[in-house]
């Protein structure tokens, strides 16, 4: 369902955030394909179990690093989604909230009028 | 080392856990009283560590055994969940969001809530989960029994006895911490903290053994790689089908296993923790798998060939005299097993009590109440629910023990675990279909689940006890009644496939097929349709309760007594908490007292709160019972939906209206600007015309005054009279022009339409214009006048226009050898005549002005014109249905005259009022 009032174009930051979401969706697909590679090797001679183990652990580590790099912007996107009413203009997230771990609580963003 | 040391160690470990859990529980309680949330207890770190309940004794002991038997295949069990977690943005995020929004208490509750709060679905999922978890719990008991057996040189206790004691002990622990209170969001701070501590213990133990194997026993990583290469054998080759199938299966299991759902969705306090777990949990899994292969290879080298590979983690340090390390490994394995059993038992007990015990009890009570005539009296439920859970925990551990006892406890750990995985994977179609497909219906989900579960039971679960125990060897060999197509390991004549893949393929594909077909054919109930919208659009409806289309209680249902609702809530939450809840809602409605108005919003809110304790289906049933048992009808649903649609249409209309207003305002503004411009134009026209009239008038007055003088010479008289006459003629001409212009502008001119030829007309115009500055000779070039062009228009007026243009050229063309090029084209009934001279043309800034009244580019009165010529030309052309324009960039002044060859009244009217629609 298309969101009726969602803007068609986003500013640079919002655009980047969307593309990180896309990357987060692509990552497991890519990972699955790479995990299946040893299946093909075995048929054509292969590296042997030791080589395959090294390959898989390196791949595993790379996937974890990629996920870790994306987790922070995604967490901010999630924070934005959770603390704001729908389609309202974005309120900047106070930097302390994400750095000190205060984001663990559902504190609403500070009222600018207060 | 004997049991004399092991048993105190195990007991001591459990006591340690007990202390941790109760400290955490107490701290959470204290913080709750202070109105704060237990931040440290519920940090992303604790969340990630609690997810490690995925790594059970299967991982701790079984993975090494698996690796010794099948090489790298063990790793698929951890790669599948890795893919699911790094892809959390797809599925887990939605799952957790819905779990929080719907106050889900278990995976059975989630699926039943999605399919219209159907308790039947809840029961099916619960039974399947109990059946699938039983072998899994048996696996843990078996591993603990084996680990005791591996140490104890003296067989004081038989493995079965030992397993029984372990099961009983764990049941007590789980009951103590899992069923202390009935929380409205079904969270167990103490247990989760204990699980997080256990995660650290098992990780440290496995890493310690691994590091000892690689750097103590072996000679670093290079040496270990060589040893692995040496130990490589045929059985270790990757089998493509199993590799792919097991990766998929493990990915599914991490979502559908009841204990994983419990820690991942039910126990979570903040869905943002998922972003941390998305990489931290795969990292934990990788750390757990890192040394599996080296330990397996070392075990194969140092231990006798008949040693159980499932126990290498334990027996390797034990056999080589590392008793401290062996003890750590023992505790690690113990913690891995206990954490799984505790969480699985809590998750299953919640399901059993919410979906089986409470509904049965409610139904019985209802019958009793109908007999006695008091509908609201359903008795105290808190004790009932808690007792049901305690009983369920005992039952589940008992079943696990029974499986262990019957199956003999001798199978490989991993193969037992995979049986459980395939069983729970049956939830996949109903779960994923429910989250992404609106057409998924309860009949489809129920039928798919039953078919998948039956295939799993028949082809994997029952045969897992061994031929001849539950299924006869005869049946295994030849199929029931000799039908070979129904052999448990070769359905439909598919022979020679790995039994696990065989079951997985048939159960999940038939499950999905039947789920899809029946969903396509059935029509969902209204509650189901509301729920499906809430699940599928979980992100679009961030505040679903505000959107009228998703309300589950209609207005007329709200005619109920809040007192009954309070009475019911007190039985579930306890009187204090229920009263607080009602009071807060009353205040929110702006009322005083404790009983709020039973608005649909309040009923929704209350139902969600109840669902957090007893599950969506039971909560819905209880609410319906109080409110009168009337369920929402399709008409209600449509009414609510059309209410929403009306509001939306109304707002669309408002939007259209405001747009129209803005458009009108813009038009008015433009009209106003135009009027102001016209007024300025009129003023300047008046002042110019006065100036033009004044000049000849002044000379006429001056010379007539001289004439009145007596002393004037007769020849002068004639001269002065001529000047006066010339000026009068000029004045008259000016007034004639003005009159002409005004008539033309008003469109009141009478046109004298005649037939004629364009060539002749141009010749006549050339001739007439020769009188202007006759001393200049123009060479004339004609193009396109070879063929006669017949016209039917006001020939006289058109000639006037041509004469004006040609006279202007004679007057203003500044070329030493002036040339006039006249080119004529005719296209689709319109004639275009271009007059182009070779002078310097009209400067760009003046091009827009030349057709305005009194526009004269030079101040000279050389031709005596008043600057009205081109303005008149333009009006004439408009009247003739045509146009005159200046064409820039032709190498001189170029005028283009366009007009219809045959003037019809319609063409004229169009050109006179071009802006009118």
From TrEMBL, chain B:
Keyword terms = Coiled coil, Kinase, Membrane, Phosphoprotein, Transferase, Transmembrane, Transmembrane helix, Two-component regulatory system
Report the residue ranges that make up the Histidine kinase domain in this protein: 688-903
Bilayer topology term: Multi-pass membrane protein
Task: Please list the coiled coil stretches.
Answer: 647-688
Q: Which CDD domains match?
A: HATPase, HisKA, SLC5sbd
**Compartment annotation:** Membrane
Q: Give the EC number.
A: 2.7.13.3
Name used for this protein in its record: histidine kinase
